[in-house]
Amino acid sequence: MHDNGLDHTRSVIVLYGTETGTSQDFAEEIGRCLERLRFNTDVVGFESVNYNDLHGYTLAVFVIATTGQGDFPENARKFWTSLLRKRLSSTTLSGIEYALVGLGDSSYPKFNFAARKLEKRLGQLGATSIIESCEADEQDDEGTDGAVLAWLEQFRQAVVTRFPLGDGQQPIPNDVLLPSKWRLERKPTSAEDAGARGSSNGAELHSPATESFSSETFEATLMANDRVTPVDHFQDVRFMALKTPHTIKYSPGDAIAILPQNMPTDVRFLIERMNWQDVADIPIRLISTRRPSTSNSAHLATSPIFGRKDLTLRNLLTEYLDINAIPRRSFFGAIANYTTDDMHKERLLEFTDPQYLDEYYDYATRPRRSILEILQEFDSVHLPWAEVTNIFPPMRARQFSIASGGRLKHLDDGSTVFELLVAIVKYRTVIKRIREGVCTRYLAQLPVGTKLQVSLKTEGRFAKASDVAGMSHLLIGAGTGIAPLRALVHEKVAQYPVAGKTALIFGCRSAKADYFFGDEWAALQPASGSDEVPLDVITAFSRDQKNKIYIQDRIRERSDLVWEYLRQRHATIIVCGSSGQMPKAVRQALVDALVQQAQKRHAEGNSTAPARPTDSDDSDEDEAEERVESQEDAEKYLARLEKEGRYKQETWS
């Protein structure tokens, strides 16, 4: 058992809410900072605690990402909901001192909303902040790292001031390796295990985080895996269909999460590179190296992997650890401890230093260097297999928006179908190397009939399937962003003629290459004088003519349609596509379109107030009186639609 000189009367819990792992990585970095200040630390996901557990700690730190439409990550929702109980009072969290880090993306309208809501509620319940909260932005030049690292130094000083070290105590130096809280070991035989029971310092534990994932998953069979773009097109896009015999209800905007596996060739390379051949296929187990007394709550001890009975190093590396990830800064610090080459060690530690953040980005993030490639280049690094769960990040499920809705969701026998539109990630980096997405590379090679463990995710849900009746929608999508919009269109088709009217503005490169579901849209558009489902489709094929045409150009061209849907039909806007500039450009185009129509109507002598909605019996008197004549008016109007849930966006990196 390690003795790291911690003062067990000084305790901290660092909670993370995450979908991608970024919050967890920052939480662990904060935990290491506090451990060096002689705090006993628990770094765990929100799902592992309830609010009463906070009273057992000197300090609580929250690291929370914002997802979807200003939502909490899935693993933080139960904790958040528990804070909203009416029976809680202004003294429920009295005596709790905390710090908070929010991770967000300013290309989303509700930037860092989860962190802001959590901070407000903590204050209402009596908790006290020891430092101004950090709001990090993925769109910043230095990503979220820059803001978090700057805040971390201020946080460290605040902690030292508020909780000074005892007489004669000093912080643990940065060059001293902190002891691991987890390690792998050979799994003893039954006889050995019986003899060792009661005398071992370690304890085999299961992972609550993984077990909860397991309890939500179900088996689905791959029914289709078809390329829908031409072979000569730059991107391989697949139409995939999964089927489960169970009847499962889902709605537009829901997603399917799939846990990928690493390729056997990559796993074999790593095992050989580290000389792990002798232990690769023997039974192993994960154990805690901490005394029970060092944690305030035994149930807080979690690990990133299953407590799997037939665990081996090979299947651990194949199924549970992301050995092809683009490494975070903490990875370089971890592997620097396992090289005897001074030059390599110095270089690795530079990548962890905040003042060399640009070098880290230039080396790892921008060229998308993988963990395996880095271990090739720093060939003096030799990792102990017992520490791999402390070094490699956990494999995380990837989410894909469901493209099916309405009558496409279920077969006559009651089984459920999930249709997906998946872009296979493969590209050449700035250093001319081919990169492939871990999950899509795995999915691309799966044959029809493959059984997969998947789970249903509802955080991106636009509306319940039963709620779309009577609603009009202005749908704006680019590329594979059409998937959830297709689900909504088919949901409305199934409810026709009750469903309100829909306009779809779709952008892609070419009508012949990536106009996904184009035949369906043609079939759904009403013929002249017919009573077919009302669907307006406007396309922007950027490469089919000399001058590129984008979605935002079509929005401005069809300002009359924008005005009709927003001001007369009271439609809900849904924007789906890549994050970054696309949603910002769309929003500005909507502002311009509204102003253009307002000016046109003013010039013609018409009121800029909207007429009574044509497809609803209910009019919104406030909206009817709200004028939109300037850019400022239009921006305020769209902001109000966001607040009302009538402007939604689903984007991804």
UniProtKB/TrEMBL annotation:
Coiled coil: none
Reactions accelerated catalytically: 2 oxidized [2Fe-2S]-[protein] + NADPH = 2 reduced [2Fe-2S]-[protein] + NADP(+) + H(+)
Keyword Acetylation: no
Alphabetical UniProt keywords: Cytoplasm, FAD, Flavoprotein, FMN, Mitochondrion, NADP, Oxidoreductase
Catalytic class of the enzyme: oxidoreductase
Compositional bias (Basic and acidic residues): 627-653
Record-linked InterPro entries: CysJ-like_FAD-binding (IPR003097), FAD-bd_FR_type (IPR017927), Flavdoxin-like (IPR001094), Flavodoxin/NO_synth (IPR008254), Flavoprot_Pyr_Nucl_cyt_Rdtase (IPR001709), Flavoprotein-like_sf (IPR029039), FNR_nucleotide-bd (IPR039261), NADPH_Cyt_P450_Rdtase_alpha (IPR023173)
Record GO terms (molecular function): flavin adenine dinucleotide binding; FMN binding; NADP binding; NADPH-iron-sulfur [2Fe-2S] protein oxidoreductase activity; oxidoreductase activity, acting on NAD(P)H
Cofactor(s) essential for the protein: FAD; FMN
Residues holding FMN: 18-23, 65-68, 103-112, 138
Entry binding sites for NADP(+): T480, S542, R543
GO CC terms of this entry: cytosol; mitochondrion
Gene3D superfamilies named in the record: 3.40.50.360, NADPH-cytochrome p450 Reductase, Chain A, domain 3 (1.20.990.10), Nucleotide-binding domain of ferredoxin-NADP reductase (FNR) module (3.40.50.80), Translation factors (2.40.30.10)
Compartments, record wording: Cytoplasm; Mitochondrion
GO biological process, one term: iron-sulfur cluster assembly
Family per record: Belongs to the NADPH-dependent diflavin oxidoreductase NDOR1 family.
PANTHER family the UniProt entry points to: NADPH-DEPENDENT DIFLAVIN OXIDOREDUCTASE 1, NITRIC OXIDE SYNTHASE-RELATED
Summary of subunit composition and partner proteins: Interacts with DRE2; as part of the cytosolic iron-sulfur (Fe-S) protein assembly (CIA) machinery.
Record's protein name: NADPH-dependent diflavin oxidoreductase 1
Organism annotation: Vermiconidia calcicola
